[in-house]
Amino acid sequence: MNVVAPRQLVPLQHAAEGRFFGMRHAAVAERERIEGFLAQEFDVAIDFANAAVTQSLVDELVGRLILEQGPDVLQRIVFKNCSDDTRAIIRFVAADRVDQYLKTNAH
Fold this sequence. Notes:
Order of helices and strands: EEHEEHEH
Number of strands: 5
Number of domains: 1
Number of helices: 3
Radius of gyration: 14 Å
Distance between the termini: 33 Å
Largest sheet: 3 strands, parallel
C-alpha cells in the first residue's frame, strides 16, 4: 500500500508586487518555506495563479532545490495554475538543473 505524503500549498501571488514576480531575491523566502515543508515530509504544491515569473525567479525557487536535493525532489512538487510561459520556464530550468546535477554528481 502506497502512503501518500500530505501536501502543503505554497501560493506565490501574495509575494508578488502586482502580478510580476521576477527578481531572484524575491524567491528566497518562498524557497526556504518549501525546503521547510519538504524537510517535514510534506509534498508541496506551488501555486502560480496570477504570478508572472521570470527564469531567474524559477531558477532560485526550483533550480536550487534540484541542485541541492537532486532531481527526485521534483517528484514531491506539483506546479499549479501555470501559464504556458510559466510552464515553459519551469521545464527549461528543471531540465538544465537536472543535467547540471547529473554531470556534477556522476561517479
